Every structure is written in structure tokens, then in C-alpha cells.
Amino acid sequence: MKRLFIIAALLSALACAADVFLGTQRINTDSGITLGPQGIAKRYLGTQLIFEASAEEEVLLTPAMTSNTTPAPFVVAASSQFNASDWAAWRAFDQQAVNGWSSVLSAGTHWLSIRLDAVRTVTRLAIDQRVEYNWPNYYVTEFELYYRNSSTDEWAYFGTYNPAAPVAAGDTTLDTAITGLQAQELKFVFTGNHTQNGSASLGEIRLYGH
Ligand SMILES: [Ca+2]
């Protein structure tokens, strides 16, 4: 689809001699205004080109986190952390399956949450199970997804998901399309944990959308 948008944009550019494309940017030579580069040209509104690709393309919604609050304004939180280093909450969003999050080693209502940089449309959700120590005995089998648009809102239930059992360390055990979810904050409540002590643990949560 991206290629089609580029071709359409180039054809539009040829039809409108006053406009020059520079990569995905369109420069309106009449006004001297540079539009983009936040997306790919999709349609014209009068003489103005509207960039909408950023609302169409599915991208990873989270950067590689390096602490529970870095980079800002993203914030990762958890009901508990086994420790604040190797098994910290942000390890579920560091874009490395080899590093993961673990709750404390006891039964309880374990959860993870992330605050995104803005209200986003979530279109896909994937879970990578952990790689580290004793992975065959520590993985998530069920979780409930909640969402809200502001920290002052109540969490709203969105759905329940059942990742498969991993057959190798770090396996992606859930990769599913999501429709109808717009939120700035997402919360994962782990209601099924295949663990030896009631804890919850995983390698990575990947949220895609726009
Ligand atoms: Ca990770």
C-alpha cells in the first residue's frame, strides 16, 4: 500500500507543475511552504496536499525504553518488579526479548501498564515470552487488556487474550490484530500465569498502530 501511495503522490506531482517532491516531502513552490515529512501524500484539498500516511501506517507505538520513565513522556508501571534492574517493568518494552519483566515471586494480581505519548489507535498486539532463566516454566497464558485516555479516567476493559505456550525461548506466542481501540494508557492484567510460584513474567509486549 505504501508504494501505491508513493506512486499516486508522484503522479499527482506531475499533474501539478507548481509542486516539487523531495523524498516524501512536497514543496509548494507557489507559497514556498514545505509540507511533511510526517507522511506520504494521499490527497489534495484544493491546492493543499494532505499528508495522511501517518494515520494509515502501522508502526511500533513505543520506543525502546531504558527506564520506567525514559524516554519521556512514556511511562511503564507494574504491580511489582522482581528487581529494579534485570526484571524491571520497562524490560517488557525495551525491544529485546532477551530482557524481560517479572513480578515478585508470589501469587497475586500482577499487572503492567504503559502510558503512550498521545492517544493512539492500536491495531496490533504481540507478546514475546521470556528468554532468561528457566523460560519453559515462566510464561503468560492469559491476560486482560484495559485502556484509558487519561490518568484520571477509570480503566475500561477491552478484551481477554490467551498467548500460546512457547516452544523455544523468547517465542512470540501472541500476535493479533486489534480493532476499535484508541487509548493513551494500556494495562495488562495477567490472569493466567504458567509459573512455579504465582508470579507473572514475559519478555516483550509489542504494540503497533498509529
Ligand atoms: Ca524485553
From TrEMBL:
PROSITE patterns in the cross-refs: FA58C_3, PROKAR_LIPOPROTEIN
Gene3D superfamilies listed in its UniProt record: Galactose-binding domain-like
Keywords: Signal
Signal peptide start-end: 1-17
Domain called F5/8 type C: residue spans: 58-210
Domain of life: Bacteria
InterPro entries listed in its UniProt record: FA58C, Galactose-bd-like_sf
Name recorded for this polypeptide: F5/8 type C domain-containing protein
Source species of the chain: Termitidicoccus mucosus
Lineage, broadest ranks: Bacteria, Pseudomonadati, Verrucomicrobiota, Opitutia, Opitutales
